[in-house]
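for the writeup, i need someone to sanity check this before i put it in the appendix. the sequnce is what the collaborator sent (i think, or maybe the updated version? ugh). structure was predicted straight from it, no edits. if anything looks off just tell me and ill rerun, i have time this weekend
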Amino acid sequence: MSRATRVMVTGAAGQVGVDVLDVLAGAVPLGGDRSFQPDARPVPEGEFEVLGLTRRELDVTDRDAVFRATQATRPDVIVHLGAYTAVDRAETEEATCFAINAAGTESMSLAAREVGAHLIAISTDYVFDGNKGGAYVEDDVTNPLNVYGASKRAGELLCSSDDTIVRTSWVMGVRGKNVAHVIAERALSGASVRFVNDQTGTVTVASDLARALATLVRQRPGGLWHVANSGTTTWFDVAHYIGEILGRDEAFATAIATAQLDPAPLATRPIRSDLSSEKFALHWSALPDWRDGVTRLIRDRGAQRGAQ
């Protein structure tokens, strides 16, 4: 009998991290779809031996600590989810953002190489400027418009060519803070929302991303991969759809332009940064449609709160 694959997960307390821990333990996370098996193989209990490290347990800006952690655990695969994700705050905290997203990712790559582990690092659609006029594929030229995107692009460049880099976008899960929860709370309270309809992208439901990452942990392909739910959308469409799920009428969500945001966000967002996950789909299978994923998220969000 072969031994379990040893996986170290950074950022294990984040909204993707908690779902990755569930998936690697053979469980279906909140908001998950049991039938979504991109590599056509369920994850059985005991296939993976997982060490989840939170930000408090591992400061990725401390290179010595990163090396000590990998040397102590000797993982086969590292799923690096630890990141600075406050997009607007990054504009005034550039040094901190780069220390985590660029230098921290470089440390993980170097440490992984030293112990013979395969690194899977998470990046973002914000490495693109949005001027392509269509969905971005892995080989498209990057040109980030904000500090966060620039830090993630720097992290990509500091990785080894053997590492696997996963770009994803508009991530939302049942657990953790994200815009889906804000919209749902407003819908349930009887309030209304205003969201932009001139920013196009791809939603990624954390539970589906987690299952896709389990496939990449098994396969360790290396290189760049775009992983997001199927279908492009706008933030207004997401808000309108969540309102519809929760029984609100057309008046719940109002479409506005980015220029109408008050106060204006500090970070410039790309107008169109949807990711094409065709490469992933050709090797395994496409992630479910974003509406399906959001429906599951809202369903299990309600069930979780009802149980509390």
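The chain is about 35% helix and 15% strand. Residues 128 and 281 are 21 Å apart (CA to CA).
thx in advance!!
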